[in-house]
Amino acid sequence: MASDTLVGSQQEDAYEEKNVHEVYQQIAHHFSSTRYKPWPIVKQFLTDLKPGSIGLDVGCGNGKNLSVNKDVFIVASDRSVNLARIAQRHQPHSTVVADILSLPHPDSSFDFAISIAVIHHLSTPERRISAIREILRTIKPASASAPGGKALIYVWALEQKDSRRGWDKGDQQDRMVPWVMKGTASAGSEPQVFHRYYHLYQASELEQNINEAGGHVLDSGYEKDNWWVIATRPCPKSS
Amino acid sequence: MKLLTANFLACAVKGCKAAASSYPLHFKDAELEMQEVDFQPEFIHNIIPRVDWEGLRVMANELGFPNIPGSKPEGDMLNDEQTLRDLHKLLLETHVVDGKLCCGHCGHEYVIKEGIANFLLPSHLV
After folding, report:
1. B67-83 pLDDT per residue, tens
2. CB within 8 Å: A97 and B116
3. How many structural domains is chain B composed of?
4. Residue B122 resides in a domain
5. Residue B115 pLDDT grade (very low, low, confident, very high; cuts 50, 70, 90)
6. Chains A and B: how many Cβ contacts under 8 Å?
7. Which is one Gene Ontology cellular component term of this protein (chain A) (predicted)?
8. Among A127, A85, A135, CA closest to B117
9. Residues of chain B contacting A, Cβ within 8 Å
């Protein structure tokens, strides 16, 4: 029923507001101070772009991936105003505040998009697939003469038995993960613990989500506790 | 927010994307500020072919820059340093620090504060 769906999606909205968005607003500065190095696959993807390419960084966080390539132009976005403000300093790029499910960009316009460690914060399979569909909507579809735009999507893996969290195949995928912000020594305050919602992806789940969103998996892999996919939009005629 | 950025923005409301009037968005009560950005001629040269020129003309006109060339500079014109400097100034250094961006289709207004536009929608528009 339509009304049930609406209520359902509003509840999920509220859930993510409390368990993802509000947390990032509060931990923005501490989070940012711990995130400074782009991951190798992300760095490679951005470095390989043709100069003059135009793209998106959806869920840009503090903008650490905006420092990789200054020969392309990136419109970055984040749901957190505080993180978007931190990300704004990376010239020549630009930052706006936006929701991954309603991106403020025209259809079929971009040469590339990245969304790094973002999709795993959406709390249902439908919302994760919608987010991927929304990113794919913005990139150029493939045509007979051109390959179209490429999207790099990166999510946290369930299979990470060598990480300090130690999760592995068979463990629960939907979790609240603590973020500990130590109190300042001078104030002698207690450490503060915030909990963020995550959906931990298992092997081949991200590829399935891409397919369900109407995308085509060009390449995929595993890098240090994360699954990644490079996806394209199939030629409208052939799909 | 740079004028170049505004060239790649549309209304966040799903139903507006298909409507021609949803692009470009329209500035309202815009407060401008010039912010220096390093001049990279190659960057401007490579970016220009990707700019929606008509969209840029509409927006620039609304901000009080009526003298944008009628057609997009191409070929040899893009090797002229003064042309590239002028475009650099317009696209990268002209910032809207406060104001609104409005959709010509649904009329929704997005607030720009301290140079950052906020496209989060109220729940009834999602």
Report:
1. 899 999 999 999 999 99
2. yes
3. 1
4. no
5. very high
6. 95
7. nucleus
8. A85
9. 1-2, 4-5, 8-14, 17, 23, 37-38, 40, 42-43, 45-47, 49-50, 92, 110, 114-121, 123, 126
Reported pTM: 0.93
| Portion 147-206 of A in contact with B at CB < 8 A | none
**Structural domain of residue B53, as residue ranges?**
3-117
What CATH code is carried by the domain that includes residue B40?
2.20.25.10
Q: How far apart are CA A225 and CA A230, in angstroms?
A: 17
Report yes or no for ipTM above 0.85.
Answer: yes
User: Hey, what amino acid is at A106?
Assistant: P
Quick: pLDDT tens for A185-220.
555 678 888 999 999 999 999 999 999 999 999 999
- DSSP letter (8 states) at residue A20: I
Predicted confidence at residue A184, as pLDDT, reads 58
Q: A75: which chain B residues are within 8 Å (Cβ-Cβ)? A: 5, 8-9
Q: Which of A51, A97, A107 is nearest residue B119 as measured by Cβ atoms?
A: A97
Query: Which one is the CATH code of A11-232: 3.40.50.150, 3.30.360.10, 3.40.800.20, 3.40.50.1860?
Result: 3.40.50.150
Q: Looking at the domain assignment, is residue B102 inside a domain?
A: yes
| Strand-pair category, B116-117 with B109-113 | antiparallel
Domain boundaries defined on chain A: 11-232
